[in-house]
Amino acid sequence: MRNILFISLVTLLLLSGCQNKEEQEREQAAEQFKQEQIAKANQAAAESSDTSMMGRMGVTMKDGKFTVDINKTKDFLGVFQKNIDEKSKALSKELKEGNLTMMAPAGIEIKNDKMSIDLNQSRSFFEGLERKLEIFAKEFDGLTSVLYESNQTESSK
Q: Residue 130 belongs to what H/E stretch?
């Protein structure tokens, strides 16, 4: 009876040891898969940087090299200037007429001697603007940090 109990106890210990090894192998495989997915996501983010604001401006960063495409930058700034000119002319016209409806998306409307402000609409407008500015700031911060790191590695050589 003691032998049977001893054999069953040893068998249980051996099986539990094998199970731990299998669990460790599964955990290692899961960790490796996770690292591969992170690497793929980083690569996809790097490839999609061309569609970012800086990419549209003609500014790219690859392999520690900062490249400015003058033609893209010139085109981007030309379109930007055209949009600003159109908006300022429309705003000037509305102000002369005494009607300021251009600010309606921001919740502000001025008609002759009456001004109305929709605070809920203003809040959502400024929250959207905040998100856009935050995205631009993150892109710019990422670019400057890469430049800084690149400069540090070159100066340490």
A: helix 119-156
